[in-house]
Design brief:
Layout: E1 2-6, H1 11-21, E2 28-30, E3 40-45, E4 49-55, E5 58-64, H2 70-86, H3 100-110, H4 113-122, H5 128-145, E6 152-159, E7 161-162, E8 174-175, H6 176-204, E9 207-215, H7 223-236, E10 244-250, H8 257-265, E11 270-273, H9 280-286, H10 292-304, E12 310-316, H11 323-336, E13 340-345, H12 353-357, H13 366-382, E14 385-391, E15 402-407, H14 413-420, E16 424-428, E17 433-438, E18 443-448, H15 453-458, H16 460-479
Parallel strand pairs: 1-2, 1-3, 6-9, 6-16, 7-8, 9-10, 10-11, 11-12, 12-13
Antiparallel strand pairs: 3-4, 4-5, 13-15, 14-15, 17-18
Helix pairs in contact: 1-2, 3-4, 3-5, 6-7, 6-16, 7-8, 11-13
Length: 480
């Protein structure tokens, strides 16, 4: 798809909007041109705002006078033409951002709830169904955000190893088979980074709110390694203020009684056991090496070991899955009654094996995926789960969303803080990104760790130097 830009700087938002309609096509942004190559969208900004869409036999132009928000008006014209061409509407309308709930909250705080919802419906073209979901989520999020203070921070620990790589995944993680020789040194250095990070927080008098160990799959570590890392957190940080301690156990085939005991005795309050689907055929297609039975066994084992706050992740729109299969999966998970259920919509990144090697995934799956999410919303609300955080990604099936559902009192605080960008996140481990929150401007500064475990292991001293940026940031922040 070609996007022609004439006399304006709105290319970023227009490109993102096109990607919502063409999630698996490259969007070519062209500023200098004499002729047009189909399919294309031509956007002009001069005496008025003009958009032309030319796809196959469809060619149409819409024009509008300039207004208070010309960028939004141009997006509305593109949206109107593409909806006409495809004979559809997008559930989130012209919104393309990751954090629609944060935007809704901003509008509510600036005006009234009624006017904010009306603006989202009339100007952003968000459907009634998504507006209802957004409003419920915003109210749940607000209660959690109020717990954070200006000196609050959360700690993220990265374990970038997995038993195998799922074919939809683009995370920087290494299979155990290829990276086993790196894990021992990695754990030692991670513990050292935890200690260094702790020293910095003590100097700055920061208050720990949540800890989240993610990946990858943290439970690819042995029970002994898990115990060492988690013990380092408890020994180095003041845990008296910590409201939540999560370990993403993730893959059922990595969960053992010994690992669960190591997690439990180190004060972890919340874990995830993520089946993605309980259809064995689909599990095989996406590259998972466990079965549905393994998931259920792991969940029951976690209950036996005393875990009373368990999350389970599912993905709607997986290759080989269908509406009936998704319904069976969700119904079985509901029978297990975990404290929270996160429903992700499949989002294909360019670097995922599935996107690179399988053209058939590019077929129109958005209608069925939308039905999956609608069923989940209806049934989970009936089961007294509440949506407490929501975010979106590019190239999502049906331009939909990811939603965390929770029983009251079991919301993941970290998920809300990281998605809302509420406060500083100090991150340790390969691929981890520290995000420093400037409350005076509401902006973030980032410090990036090395992506890959071998870089992390061999260039650790350079990483430590980068950590000095945390103190420098807070010196600037508190001096303002």
């Amino acid at each position: 798809m070609n996007l022609y830009i004439e006399n304006h700087s709105f290319h970023y938002e227009m490109e993102n909007l096109l990607r919502a309609f063409f999630p698996y096509e490259k969007i070519n942004v062209i500023r200098e041109f004499e002729n047009f190559e189909k399919p294309y969208v031509l956007t002009k900004y001069g005496d008025n705002i003009s958009v032309t869409v030319s796809i196959d036999d469809f060619e149409k132009t819409l024009k509008s006078e300039k207004c208070a928000d010309d960028e939004l008006r141009m997006a509305q014209l593109i949206y109107q033409l593409l909806c006409e061409h495809f004979d559809c509407e997008l559930p989130w309308g012209v919104l393309t951002g990751v954090r629609p709930i944060k935007l809704l909250r901003k509008f509510i705080d600036a005006d009234t709830e009624e006017n904010a919802l009306a603006y989202f419906a009339d100007e952003f073209k968000v459907t009634k169904e998504k507006l209802s979901l957004a409003l419920i989520t915003e109210k749940a999020e607000r209660e959690i955000l109020d717990l954070s203070q200006s000196d609050s921070f959360s700690l993220y620990l990265s374990i970038p190893f997995c038993p195998s790589r799922c074919n939809y995944c683009s995370f920087v993680s290494q299979s155990v088979e290829k990276a086993k020789h790196l894990i021992g040194d990695y754990v030692k250095l991670l513990i050292e980074e935890i200690r260094i990070t702790s020293d910095i927080t003590k100097k700055l008098n920061l208050r720990l709110e949540t800890v989240y160990m993610g990946g990858g799959t943290p439970t690819t570590l042995t029970a002994e390694q898990m115990d060492e890392v988690l013990s380092a957190v408890n020994e180095n940080f003041d845990m008296s203020t910590c409201r939540e301690f999560t370990v993403e156990a993730g893959r059922p085939d990595t969960i053992t009684r010994e690992k669960l005991f190591a997690i439990k005795r180190n004060g972890v309050t919340r874990i995830s056991i993520n089946p993605q689907t309980l259809n064995d055929e689909v599990l095989s297609i996406i590259g998972r090496r466990h079965s549905a039975k393994d998931t259920i066994d792991a969940f029951n084992l976690a209950r036996e070991c005393g875990f009373d706050n368990i999350n389970m992740d599912l993905i709607a729109g997986l290759k080989g899955d269908c509406y009936q299969s998704f319904v069976k999966t969700l119904d079985k998970v509901r029978e297990l009654s975990p404290e929270s259920i996160t429903i992700h919509t499949l989002a294909l990144k360019r670097s995922s094996d599935l996107n690179q090697n399988n053209d058939e995934i590019k077929l129109n799956i958005k209608n069925e995926t939308s039905l999956m999410l609608s069923y989940a919303e209806k049934e989970l609300l009936a089961d007294d789960y509440v949506p407490y955080y929501l975010y979106r990604q590019s190239r999502m099936a049906g331009n939909l969303e990811n939603v965390g559902w929770s029983k009251k009192g079991f919301e993941s605080l970290y998920n809300v803080y990281i998605m809302d960008e509420t406060h500083t996140i100090l991150a340790c481990g390969a691929g981890a990104v520290t995000k420093l929150k400037d409350f005076s401007s509401d902006k973030l500064e980032r410090i990036f760790n090395f992506k890959y475990p071998y870089e992390y292991n061999t260039r650790f001293s350079e990483l430590v130097e980068r950590k000095s940026g945390i103190e420098e940031f807070y010196k600037r922040y508190f001096s303002c």
